[in-house]
Design brief:
about 400 residues, Nucleotidyltransferase, domain 5, 13 helices, 5-stranded mixed beta sheet, binds zinc ion, alpha/beta
């Protein structure tokens, strides 16, 4: 099967060394196109030290050293505002219930709260956290799921009313930022924060920056389809994660249990004077913490769904830490333990890969306003030119 050739023949068939090297070099030259200089795809710009907040790296100086900031968190039921110091402590707080869906009324509430807090403190910046997709360069809320905001110029309206500069960020980003700066995710280079409330809020802090994707709409983890054909979701699909692992999901399951007349739901029904329609996720969480077995089971079920979704996220994002916060996070280990078990049980390549830490948030429901305040210090730092550059902390956004 072998062909016998002479050395002379072999030399004749083999291209000269010069030809080989020149053909190797010609390929990149041909494909070289004008554009930014490429870096090493895996190791370029990698940080060897712990990521630090960009504002600190760039020395926002006086503002950071002395400044107090007001953070405002616009929730579905209440608007909470607080004066926040450099260490994430809330020095003063004020709140009002959310006045319906009208953007003007919500703006008026924000203005009232800021005017209540600002005169008593030396305020350097104001940050607003709101649910929805933001156009950060223009300070508009493109879409808010629970408020009637469509292309709402929230920042400009508030700046006119308050006569101060204001920054507007997504509320889940604000909460994640607070946990990364001051909470359990402190210093984690790859942090994913899950906020469990009415739905599921998601945010990523990567190398000290809020990651929002190419169009600013990343982090909608709650709408990954986890049960094909499952419960209908407000987003229009069926079987979204937030239909199984949110405060709303917990309330729905508990109402179903209560209306089944099961004897295990007696404590639950007593708590709401026999009216199952008054059962919410918060009621179930409270009873579970008091030791009611049925409510503990319900929280456990939600925790398991939470873990399944986290395993999906780990397959896609490979974070070092998942921080679980929001109202449902108050259930603590009743929720986190089953979530951790389901996460480890469903993790791709389990046993052969490093496993992310799953941990409860440290800052509680105030994380949103703390993060909004802290981000405002950075996005409104001296020298940042409005409307041109997206703050570096928000690189990757629109
Ligand atoms: Zn959905």
């Amino acid at each position: 099967m072998y062909e016998t050739v002479t050395v002379a023949e072999l030399r004749r068939r083999t291209p000269a060394r010069q030809e080989i090297t020149s053909s190797m070099q010609s390929e990149p030259q041909d494909s070289a196109a004008p554009g930014p200089r490429l870096q090493h795809p895996f190791f370029g710009r990698r940080r060897t030290r712990r990521p630090r907040p960009v504002a600190v790296e760039h020395g926002a100086g006086q503002l950071l050293r002395r400044g107090l900031a007001i953070g405002v968190d616009i929730g579905g039921t209440k608007v909470a505002a607080g004066v926040v110091d450099l260490h994430g402590n809330i020095i003063a707080e004020a709140r009002e219930s959310t006045p319906g869906h009208d953007p003007r009324e919500v703006e008026n509430v924000i203005v009232r709260l800021v005017r209540e807090l600002a005169p008593r403190h030396r305020i350097r910046s104001i940050g607003i956290g709101a649910a929805g997709w933001m156009d950060l360069a223009n300070g508009t809320v493109l879409f808010s799921p629970h408020l009637a905001w469509r292309n709402e110029p929230l920042r400009d309206n508030l700046e006119i009313l308050l006569r101060r500069r204001v920054s507007v960020v997504n509320d889940a980003d604000a909460a994640a930022w607070a946990e990364w700066r001051f909470g359990t995710g402190r210093g984690e280079p790859r942090l994913v924060c899950i906020t469990l409330g009415t739905g599921i809020g998601g945010a990523m802090i990567m190398d000290g920056r809020v990651e929002r994707g190419r169009h600013g709409v990343a982090g909608e983890f709650g709408h990954q389809i986890i049960v094909p054909g499952g419960h209908r979701c407000e987003c229009g699909n069926r079987g979204c994660w937030e239909q199984y692992a949110s405060g709303n999901a917990l309330g729905r399951e508990a109402r179903e249990l209560a209306t089944s007349n099961s004897p295990v739901a007696q404590a639950l029904l007593r708590e709401v004077d026999g009216d199952p329609s008054r059962i919410t996720g918060a009621v179930v969480t409270r009873l579970a913490l008091q030791g009611d077995p049925a409510c503990r089971e319900l929280v456990d079920d939600v925790g398991q769904w939470l873990g399944v979704g986290l395993a999906n996220l780990a397959a896609a994002l490979d974070p070092g830490t998942f921080v679980i916060g929001g109202g449902l996070g108050a259930a603590g280990n009743l929720l986190i333990d089953p979530a951790r078990r389901a996460f480890e049980r469903n993790l791709t390549g389990r046993g052969f890969r490093p496993t992310a830490v799953v941990t409860a948030a440290a800052l509680g429901p105030e994380a949103g306003l703390i993060g909004a305040a802290d981000l405002s210090r950075i996005t409104l730092r001296p020298g940042h030119r409005r409307g041109r550059a997206v703050p570096r902390a928000y690189r990757g956004v629109g």
